[in-house]
Design goal:
two-stranded antiparallel ribbon, mainly alpha, 71% helix, globular, 1% strand
Length: 552
Amino acid sequence: MGDASILQVSMDQAAMARDFLLSNKLEEARECVIPYKDTSMYAAMAFCNIGFMQAIMTFDRDHIAQSISEIDVALQVIDSNRRKDGMISYLMSYVKNRDISLFTESERHAELLYAETLLVRSVLTFAEDAESLVSFVKGALKIKTCHSLYKELYSCVSQHESQESPGSQPTFSREIVGGIMMGYGAFLLGLSLLPPKILRLLEFVGLQGDKALGLKLIKEAEKMDLLRSFVAAYGLLNFETIILQFIKPEEYDVDIVTDILDRYLDRYPGSVTFTFFKGRKSVISGDLYGAITLFEECEAIPLDWIQVYHLCYWEKMWCYAMSLQWEKAAEFAYKLFEESKWSKTLFGYQYVAFQFMADPSTANIQEIAERVPKHQLRIGGKHLHIEKFAIRKARSYLANGKFLCLPGLELMYIWRFIPQINRVNKEKLLTIIEGCLEEIESAAPYHTPYPLDDWFLCHLLTGVLVADLGDAPRALAALKTALQSEDSVQVDHFYIPYAHFELGILYSKQGEFAQARAHLRYAKEFSGKVKSYSLENRLLFRIHSALSSLPH
């Protein structure tokens, strides 16, 4: 069998695994490539990627170790098919990019597969020893190597395509071009979303982002209907329905999401992957009960990986919270706390917050709050910021007479779910906030030693809610009122930069760009005024996105 035939058989094996995977047949996907994983490049890649998905979903050390072993075997299989240059060519590659047009088709695929598999390996390196800074550095170095490889491949393909005359035979196959576009586009997009402080460090070692080009490349790769196109579709759905909703929801493109979901659900009816994203689409549109129905459809599909169900619990928890059904939201937070290994610290505090909103006298709130700090994770040698926030809030609850101010609404604000709350429920929340303000102003003594922190929070949340209701003057007034007590905030200093951020967004929408820029920069530089504050990194992502959108 010639190289071309061997390559096609290898790709057919991966295509079969893909179809099983997207049809909810996870074990069949794995089993169909097992006989070929030690000899076939694409079978090796498909096999290790299935193990990678399981490792990331479970975050189980045994699964991570097994996946790393499988990836290392896949890298050896793929590397054995890569072009072997002599010493002179190897040394020249440090000065000048290799010309992959001189490679055989099989060698080109090997280069692309090596880059793809190395990226997967680098992600698992971070998780291999989550408490080790060494693992973090190793992962970063692998990502740098992977980025350099993609950049080299893209540069070579772009150069040859620019030199080809119309109607001539293309130098590179569509599968090669599409795979390179997808991988390099993902790097450009991901890097472009990082705050400038992090970007400057990455640019120093040659990593640069370009949001517009990155998105363009991924969209083109998705439309090419190739073996890898479903990965581009999955990436775009993640970007549109999850990432954008957090950093810049106004850029959400419902047409792209609808087009992808229609095509893939037609091809893979009942696919848990695309049904889940259809649920996310419903959440964004405000159809919360429609979303819950779709997530329950996902839960009804028999799967070996229960972590898929946990994703649905997470989404249903927020749907019920946005519907002000606090008891139901707490129910799913508790299920996550009991069943999932992802972040018991966060899930435990979410139960505390939502159950407090439902009934502050519930007996087990104190018990769960006491357990929250015991499950704290470390990634790359550092604690997660959202878990540090959860622990601090749980301790505040225990230290201040079992009291928290609007904890469920505060969580919805932090996770940016307020825009999906309907008008009627927003009005109900404003009434609840007014009651809290009256209590703060009249209670003597107040529940905590820091009443002005809660007073600030109430006005911040009022500003966000009424801004969403379209009352900009009232929103500006509420946020300015909050900031009048900026110097009096004693514990929750993160409220201050968040309030300035919201003011910046309001001024931007009104075309007052100088004011917008001033408040956004104040929020960006706030860390210089205090040693540190909660949830700083997630705010910096949003500030970076907002500032980059202002006219120069």
